[in-house]
Structure formats: C-alpha cells, structure tokens
Amino acid sequence: MKVLLVEDEKTIAVTLGDELEAAGHDVKVVGDGKEAIRVLGETAFDCVITDVRLPGADGLEVLQAAKQARPDTEVLVMTAFATVEHAVEAMRRGADDYIQKPFLNEHVVERLERVSRYRTLLDENRRLKEDLRGDHGLPGVLGVSRRIQDVFKVVRTVAPTDASVLIQGESGTGKECIARALHQLSNRAQKPFVALSCGALPETLLETELFGHERGAFTDASKLRKGRFELANHGTIFLDDIDDMPLQTQVKLLRVIQEREFERVGGEQTIEVDIRIISATKVPLIDLVKKGGFREDLYYRLNVVPVNLPPLREREGDVPLLVQHFVRRLSTGRQYTVKTDVLQAMSGYAWPGNVRELENHVAQAIAMAGGSRILKKENLLPVDKTRRAALEPPTDLKSLREVMTEAERAHLRRVLSSVGGHRTKAASVLGISRKVLWEKLKDYGIE
Length: 447
Prior knowledge:
CATH topology of the largest domain: Rossmann fold
Strand content: 5-15%
Largest sheet: 5 strands, parallel
CATH architecture of the largest domain: 3-Layer(aba) Sandwich
Shape: elongated
Radius of gyration: 31 Å
Number of domains: 4
Number of helices: 19
Helix content: 40-55%
Structural class: alpha/beta
CATH superfamily of the largest domain: P-loop containing nucleotide triphosphate hydrolases
Mean pLDDT: 85
Number of strands: 14
C-alpha cells in the first residue's frame, strides 16, 4: 500500500517508517501538518498515519484533507495526549482507528496488513464490476462470486430465446432483477415487461389481473379492463411467487401457455397473445408438485430453463460490492464512507433477508447519518445477534500478543527496580542492548 506517515518526532518517524517499508509498503514520511496537506493534494495514498499534535497544521486537519482528497483513504490517528475528547473528535471526523502512544510498531504493521488485505478485495471487486459492464455482466445485477457468475452465464445463453424460465430463490435474492435482465437482453426488449405477484391477490382478483374483465362481468366492473397478459402482448410477463397461485388459476394459465389465447372474465371473445413467460418461486416447486399443491404439467411448461438464484450468504465477496453500489445509488450525490472493519462484519453476517435486507440497512444508515459522512455499524448491521452467522467471542478476552505485551512490560519494570533503575545493568540482565532497552522503555512509557 502507499502510506503517508505524518510525525514530527524523528525516532518514531524513522523506526515506524522503516518497519512499514520492511513489510512491503511504499512509505512517504512528512514531519509537518501543512506539508502533509500539500502532499495529499498532489498524491493519492491508501493509508495516512498521522500524529494529532504537529507543527504547521494539526492531525485533525490532515485527516480532513485526506478524506476530502480520497474518501476511502484509511486514516489512523496517533497521539500521546490520549483523552476521550481526542478520540471522539477524530472518529467523528472520519478516522478509521485511534492509536495511543506509546505503541509497538508491530501493532501498526499488523493493522495495515489487515487493511491491505481487505483493500485488495475491494479493488478486485471494483475491477470485476467494470468487467460486469462487458460480456460477463447483466443489466441491473451486480456480483463477482462464482455462484452468481454461473447464473449470469445461463441468463445470457437463454435470453435471446423465447424459452420459459423458472427462477428459484429465497425472498430478497433479486428474482425480479434477473427476470428484467432476461427481458432486456432478449429480442423483446423494446416491448412491454409486465410483472405480477401471484401471492399478493386473492384468487378472484388474481384472475381479473391476469386476464382482464368485460364491462358488467361483476358488480364493480363498470368498464372493460385489460389484463396483464393482454398488456404484455409481444413482450414479457413475469409471474412472481408462482408457488402461491391457486390450482384453478393454474388450469387457465396452462391453457394460455399451450394455446397462447384466453378470454377476459365475463367475456366470450378469444384474445390471442404473443408473450414470453418468466416465473419465479421462493420454494422448490417440485416439492409442491409432489404434495399436490401445483400441477405437474404446468410445472414442466414453466420450468423449461431453470435458474437457481443463490442466497447472499453463499455469494462470497459480493457484499462489499453491493454495499458500495447501494451507497452510491441511495446517497443522492453525497459521498459516504463505510469502514473496512464494518464491511468485514457485514460480509460475515448471514443476511437471511438477502440483497433486499442489505439494501434496507444501507438506506437506514444513510437516513440516520445526519451530518456525518461515516455510515455507522449499528445501522448497517441488524441488532439481533442471535441471527448472526457465527457466535462472537466474549469482549473481555485478550489476544495472545496483548498478554505477552503486558508480561513484557511488567518484567521490564521488575528488572529495572531490582538494579535501582541502572539501564546498562538492566540491559545486561535482560540480554539485550541499551538501544533496544531504550526503545522498549519508550514504547511502554516506562520512565
């Protein structure tokens, strides 16, 4: 990664800069806040590590300049004057992390390694998103996972034909988006696309919606009304939740598929239509056939080409891409940032409501953002932790490195006390050089 380190204390600037370079990062070191702001205006950086107290301009001004230059720049703020006020203000202005001095350089290197791995994933998603505009994508549908790419291949293959397609997937997976993509990539793209949810209406109204009715067909039928089949003539009709269609209506639908004709409710005139039928089900339709809840002959008429749409939890790598897409689409021109650790948490959540639930939480986060440009984790992720993909570890557990750090700090204090604070003797007892001892004492804040 390209890193800008802004630190006026030479010891920290040199040692931390060297370790970051040794870890493979391209590091530029600046010791003045104004100089850092100037550099940020000329060069793009993946990460900025800045002290709060600096000559020229303070670290919060550097933070603001970094986010203005490139909103997705990772900014780590460090200070020896650690107060709640400093931390709150830095995070409010968009800092991605807060580091209290003294710290171990290895901790900062590890933090950047996590950022680097995740930015690599985001960059790959961006690149693949560009590819989706070419031969491998679908209109209105995003995804880079292997599962969704398999769906794209099927859709592109079958779209130019008039074959009936049955889309199977959980609620919220985007079945109507796939249906619209099939229509847009077909020879009927300039003709109507008409959608109807079979589960949203009672049986009597469903037949009227599908086939229309003549004037006087029933009490409230004051005028002739065309149905969805008639409105979709020469185009595509999409029957969502086909698994909710009553058996009596299934009989009439079968005739339309076989004969391409029907009569309006209360009418005798036969109306011919030229349509393509795409249907969708949220449950395996073959199971309904076996239980007698769906006609077998209709099932095979609809299921000429099956498209199995995977749930979001099985689309590895797609969540960050979809989040960024929804943020751009829903933000009405304003730029918002979702921190990498939040994207990681979102990727680890099961999303039982699938893409629809994800979009809903992005919309909620934007609505609740107020004046902030940082979308909060509590608005982007469901509060109900019982629905998470995996159990979270107790918050009071410490990492192995934290335990080792505490033990080392305690041992240094004990040795120094035993030799009366004499550093040369302490270094000899510890088996390290005076320089290494001095650095450790500085890192741990031991006087």
